[in-house]
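re: that chain from earlier
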Amino acid sequence: MKTTANKTRVPTPAVPATPDVHPFLHPRFPSRHGALARIWVATMRRALADPVYYAEMLRSYAKPVSEKGSSSVLLGRYFRDADAYLDDLLLLVPPSFAGRMRPLPDTRRANDMLRLFRAAIDGEDPRIRYEAQRKLYLAKLLFDVDHCRSVRDGPRHQARFERIVKEDIWIDLVGHRSIEVCCRFVEAEDGEQGFEVGVPPDPGATCWRFQVRKLPEKNGDAEVLIYHYRSRFKREANPEPGRPSKNGFLTLTERPRWPGLGRRSGSIVSKMLRRGIADPQMVEDLLGAMFIVGDRRQAYALERRLIHILGGPLRWRDRVDTLAGEKDRRKMGVRSSSGFRVLKSIVDVLTDDPSGAGPYFFGVEVQIFPLEDYLRTLHARHFASHYAYKRRQFLHDLLPMLFPSEIYGKETAHLAAESK
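^ sequence. v structure.
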């Protein structure tokens, strides 16, 4: 197999709704959202002046009626997580730039709401005031994700989906063979990129080893070779390029994308910021399932099998097919590479409520990749790589939002422009 592709073309993004959905991240929050700012400032000033009023507000914010303990201690963790989240994002930029963008020492030391209130209102300069305002809001989002029911139920929903796949798809698997697949990335002087799959395992190639299983023909559908499968809960881990194993091959591994947050909520918060989502329950791809098959024909055959076992076509929505051509490209995110090819949908899965109430739905984003298209996303140098995609999202969407040039200077805008 041998393919070539043009360089990535990053579309011009639409004006995001984020300044209105997430107003506390705007550097001119008081002038842009006057009525909201007046309520916010009045509440903060009263909290600063009246310890009883502040304690009551804090208790109602952070503790259910049945719980006891210190609300300030509970919230302190989320303020520290807000700093860790920013530190992790800055791993995607040059160290010299990251050093200038990191939260100021005074901001980092402020890990209670009252101290941040004071800095946001009476800070000595715009950066101190903005960083306090940003830290308050990021901690709020991290707290919201932690206490969102759909997030809390994520592992149970994932187990339910895995059980369906095991009982209704994997039960038909036959055979088991190990296959090594090598590819080579090449780039011409004019910038044209080439990606060759199925090359010999020489020093210039990158190789992966797969344990391939087969779904035989069934109900008129063609056989399907399954090279790789995984489900993921967005709060826990995201794919990364393979790493060398002891035998010299690259293994398909994963680790948390936000090392400072451990198994926490950075990825979900980033999605909320980029997409202009205020409620974490509105994040539809908290759960995902990825199937890697032999070719495009097999991708459609597997899709039909999954539709059959997961409620039929009325349970499936938001279908995107960039395997067949460019018609659905407009449905992809603006940071998606022109070389990213996938067949994906959201499927609503019915499950029982442990409380004994009636059953309800949860969504799973199902992605099906032909092997060759999937390998492009793994190769760190390819413009369709998952890492390059995440870096574009940060540089063009999160960086200007969280480190606005009005506060941090024009270098923020220049860094985003240079990456296009």
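The chain has two domains: 18-146, 151-415.
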